[in-house]
Design a protein that fits this description.
single chain; about 190 residues; alpha+beta; 7 helices; about 45% helix
């Protein structure tokens, strides 16, 4: 009888631990996404997996985040607050690290200073479809705005470096490969 009670307690604690872990994963993923949409770069950096800063200094990464939204001639890029439609992958323990692959939607606008000439609109649409790997691209001539909705991926990581807190990394194959080995990439199905 004691074995059954201990087993039941173990199962209850395990399930609660997993539920809390998934709950914090979801809440923090939403927070990270909101910071991205609202261009709250410092807060994003605080939630970013710290090994990224081994590749480039924090200040350099901060500037590379700001540049597409602030440093363009002839247009500006705006992230649109829209439902990210998160799909959370399983929480997977690999060695001493815990991961989850999260897919979601990114919605953005490119607001041009001048209207795109009618004869070039389709070329621009096709270019963005190809570059962003999406079919969801349209041009609003009245507002001189290219509207784009594309799939994106982020990786949640929890380990000793993060003090077992979830930190996030927007998925980029080259960057991911510099931080993690091929075994982890394969186990995560990336």
């Amino acid at each position: 009888m004691k074995k059954i009670v201990y087993l039941a307690l173990f199962m209850l604690v395990s399930i609660q631990g997993f539920s809390q872990d998934m709950a914090s994963l979801k809440a923090n993923a939403q927070k990270f996404y909101d910071y991205t949409v609202n261009h709250q770069y410092e807060q994003m950096m605080d939630m970013t997996y710290p090994k990224l800063y081994d590749i480039a200094p924090k200040e350099t990464i901060l500037e590379s985040l700001k540049k597409p939204f602030e440093g363009n001639e002839g247009f500006k890029i705006k992230m649109v607050a829209a439902s990210p439609n998160f799909i959370f992958g399983n929480i997977k323990k690999i060695g001493d690290q815990t991961f989850s692959v999260i897919t979601h939607d990114n919605t953005m606008q490119i607001i041009w200073d001048e209207a795109i000439p009618n004869l070039e609109i389709q070329d621009y649409i096709d270019m963005f479809k190809s570059a962003m790997k999406t079919e969801n691209v349209s041009y609003d001539a009245a507002n001189k705005t290219m509207n784009i909705k594309a799939g994106a991926k982020m990786i949640a990581i929890s380990d000793n470096l993060t003090k077992k807190q979830w930190k996030y990394l927007t998925y980029n194959e080259q960057v991911f490969s510099k931080i993690f080995d091929e075994k982890i990439k394969a186990e995560l199905g990336l």
